[in-house]
Amino acid sequence: MNLIAIILFAILALLAVFHIIWANRVFWPAKDELSLVKMVIGDPNIRSMPSSKQTYFIAIALLIAGIFALWGGNIIALPLPLWIRELGIFLLAFTFGTRGLATYMIAKHLGEKTQPFKMLDKTLFAPMSLLISIGFIILIVKM
User: Fold this and answer.
1) What are phi and psi of 30, to 5 degrees?
2) In this predicted structure, what is the pLDDT of residue 30?
3) pLDDT of the residue at 109
4) Is the pTM of this model over 0.90?
5) Structural domain boundaries, residue 50
6) What total number of domains does the chain contain?
7) What is the pLDDT of residue 143?
8) SS (H, E, C) the chain
């Protein structure tokens, strides 16, 4: 269980780092802002990345999710009631699971997406979200 918690934390921390990079207006791995929008947002009506403030917020949320993974794996202890840990991990499992399943179940109803987002979503973003959800589910079962 510790290994799952550490892997979850590492993945979520890496995703947070990407968001911090983007919040600082570095458009890696794309060549420019529009290319990054097409890669990670995929909405043909959006031409610029979300604000730095919004992007930092997502980075912080991802880090908090990683901390919950470590807490759920009993790697760290937080001075909070255990019901907060259990509810938080359940909500994270639900959120990442919903995100992952949405690609395969309701993506057609959410409007047309641009390439390469469409391909990346089906091959990387959604499967990664589902694996993160499964990791949190394992933490729930092992608590």
Assistant:
1) -85, 170
2) 95
3) 63
4) yes
5) 2-142
6) 1
7) 78
8) CHHHHHHHHHHHHHHHHHHHHHHCCCCCCCCCHHHHHHHHCCCCCCCCCCCHHHHHHHHHHHHHHHHHHHHHCCCCCCCCCHHHHHHHHHHHHHHHHHHHHHHHHCHHHHCCCCCCHHHHHHHHHHHHHHHHHHHHHHHHHHC
